[in-house]
UniProtKB/TrEMBL annotation:
InterPro entries (UniProt xref): NqrB/RnfD (IPR004338), RnfD_bac (IPR011303)
Family: Belongs to the NqrB/RnfD family.
Protein known as: Ion-translocating oxidoreductase complex subunit D
UniProt KW Glycosyltransferase keyword: no
Gene giving rise to this polypeptide: rsxD
Species classification: Bacteria, Pseudomonadati, Pseudomonadota, Gammaproteobacteria, Cellvibrionales
Length: 343
C-alpha cells in the first residue's frame, strides 16, 4: 500500500488545513474593522492588493515547482500570509512596498524551503522584517488616527497605494515611537503633550488590540491552537514590564497595560506565534516559546533600536523552536523517567 507523502500541518476531517486558514481569516475581521474605523481604508487596500499579489506569486512558485495549482491554492495559506502582512504594514503603503513584502514572504520564506509545512520561519514576519530593514522611512509612516487628523477616503487610499507620489498623508509617530524617543518628560507629561495617546496606549491601537484579542479568543474556542504560547507570551511581557516599571519617570519603559495594548502585541500573540509550522510543537515547548517571545519583545522595545519588536522576537524564536522541542519532548508512554532508571 502506498503511503501519502505529506507535510505538516496534519489536519483531517472538519479541521482541515483549509478550514483552519478560513477560521484565521474570519478571526482577523474585528481587528481590520477597528483599524479601518480609526485609520481609514488604507489597511483594507493593503490587504486586497497583498492578497492579489500573494495568489499570483503562489501560482508562479507552484508552476515552477510543477505542483498542482488548485490543491495548493485551495488551502488559503497564501491568503492568510497576505492578510497578516497587510495588517502589519502601515496604512496607505505604496504598491511596490507591499509587492516586495509579499514576494519575500511567499517566494523566499515559504517556497524556497519547500512550501507549506517546510518553512522554518513565519512567512509574514519575514516579509515584514525585510521591509523594516530595507525601507525604514516607509515602514514608520503611520497615518494619524481618527480624532487627530482627517481620515482619507477610499479613493485617497487607492491613490496612496498606486500613485504614492501624488498623495500626501498626515502621518505621526506611534506611541511606541514616542516612548522610545522620550528622555526628558514624565509619562504623564508625555501623555498630555501628544494627542495620539489614548486611555491605555494609543488612539486606535488600543482598540485594535482588544479586537485582535477577541478574534484570538474565538480561535481558542474553535481549538485552532492551544492557549500555551499566546498566554505565556502575554504573561511574560506583562511581568517583565511590571518588574521594570518605575511609576512613570522620563526613563520609564512603559506600564504592563501599555505594552499589552500597544503595537502588535495581541496581533502577534494570537495570529503570529501560533503558526503550527514555525513554532514549538510540545506543550512545554509552547510555554517556553511564548514566554521567551514576550521577554524579547520587552527587551527590544526598551533597549533595542526598534520601537516594536514582535517580528524580530518571533523570527529569533522560530530559529530556536527545534532546539526547544528537543529538550521539552514529553516522556514516551510506558517509559520510566531517567532518574527512576538509574535507581
Amino acid at each position: 500500500m502506498a503511503l501519502m507523502r505529506i507535510t505538516s500541518p496534519h489536519a483531517h476531517g472538519p479541521m482541515s488545513t483549509a478550514r483552519v486558514m478560513q477560521n484565521v481569516l474570519l478571526a482577523t475581521v474585528p481587528g481590520v474593522i477597528v483599524l479601518t474605523h480609526f485609520f481609514g481604508f488604507g489597511t483594507l487596500v493593503n490587504i486586497i492588493w497583498a492578497s492579489i499579489l500573494a495568489l499570483a506569486f503562489e501560482a508562479l512558485a507552484l508552476r515552477l515547482r510543477k505542483r498542482p495549482l488548485g490543491f495548493y491554492l485551495g488551502d488559503y495559506s497564501a491568503l492568510v500570509t497576505a492578510v497578516l502582512l497587510g495588517i502589519a504594514l502601515p496604512p496607505y503603503s505604496p504598491w511596490w512596498l507591499i509587492a516586495v513584502g509579499i514576494a519575500s514572504s511567499i517566494l523566499l520564506a515559504k517556497h524556497l524551503y519547500g512550501g507549506l509545512g517546510y518553512n522554518p520561519f513565519n512567512p509574514a514576519m519575514v516579509g515584514y522584517v525585510v521591509l523594516l530593514i530595507s525601507f525604514p522611512v516607509q515602514m514608520s509612516s503611520w497615518a494619524a488616527p481618527r480624532g487627530v487628523g482627517e481620515l482619507p477616503g477610499l479613493l485617497d487610499a487607492l491613490q496612496a497605494c498606486f500613485t504614492p507620489g501624488n498623495f500626501d498623508a498626515v502621518t505621526m509617530a506611534t506611541p511606541l515611537d514616542l516612548l522610545k524617543q522620550n528622555n526628558s518628560l514624565l509619562m504623564d507629561d508625555l501623555w498630555q503633550q501628544n494627542v495620539q495617546f489614548g486611555r491605555w496606549a494609543g488612539i486606535g491601537w488600543e482598540w485594535a488590540s482588544l479586537a485582535f484579542l477577541a478574534g484570538g479568543l474565538w480561535l481558542l474556542y474553535q481549538r485552532v491552537f492551544t492557549w500555551h504560547a499566546p498566554i505565556a507570551m502575554l504573561v511574560a511581557l506583562a511581568l517583565t514590564a511590571a518588574l521594570f516599571y518605575d511609576g512613570g519617570s522620563s526613563a520609564s519603559g512603559g506600564s504592563p497595560l501599555f505594552h499589552l495594548l500597544s503595537g502588535a502585541t495581541m496581533f502577534g500573540a494570537f495570529f503570529i506565534i501560533t503558526d503550527p509550522v514555525s513554532s514549538a510543537v510540545s506543550t512545554r515547548g509552547r510555554l517556553v516559546f511564548g514566554a521567551l517571545i514576550g521577554l524579547l519583545v520587552y527587551l527590544i522595545r526598551v533597549y533595542g533600536n526598534y520601537p516594536d519588536a514582535v517580528a524580530f522576537a518571533v523570527l529569533i524564536m522560530n530559529f530556536a523552536a527545534p532546539f526547544i522541542d528537543q529538550y521539552t519532548q514529553p516522556r514516551s508512554y510506558g517509559h520510566a523517567a531517567r532518574r527512576e532508571n538509574n535507581e
